[in-house]
Amino acid sequence: MGALILLHPPRSPLPSGGRGNWHPLALLGIVPAHGRSGAPVAEDSDDALMARVAGGDAAAFDRLAARHMRRAVALAQRMTGNPSDADEIAQEAFLRVWRHAGRWDGARAAFTTWLYRIVMNLAIDRGRRPGWSPLQEAGDPPDERPDALTRIAERQTAERVNRALAALPDRQRAAVLLFHQEGLSLRQAAEILAMSESAFASLLARARAALKTALTVSEIL
Length: 221
What we know:
Helix content: 55-70%
CATH superfamily of the largest domain: RNA polymerase sigma factor, region 2, helix turn helix motif
């Protein structure tokens, strides 16, 4: 699959209502009319929906977005560490799906592979390292019960792991997220990053080694 041509993310703010209550096509002035194509979409495969999207079927796009938006946002947030950036990246990713649906070739890559590649490219292109916001409920009084202390210790460990992950080069961080957090196979993750399986395995090994070194210094390992 050739490299995607990256465009600048839209500057328009997200519609009110927050994550999950907006629709990507709203920025294009398109309001999906569910079922207007005359065919049910509830049980359609991604391939079938994409064929309809390529023909301009907004209802099929609506179903596709509902199916995959949450994971796209989650992946973008793990890459950027910023919920607002993640929303914008996921929104832009689905706008590209709509605009370039005709370019997708289901014989060469699954829809999710194509979508995740777009999300990853946008997150990397944004050039922001993920941050971590520790103990967001800082206004609450400290809870010193044993189970609470255990949770605090676990959270502090998670913070160190996330800081170590944030310090990795973009593609190494992407490799860890795709393989370990998304649970994708070597082949699937390699396709998303547009590289061979052997090259991805090498990239992942370097990322693991860097994480191990960082966590050893942090006295986690």
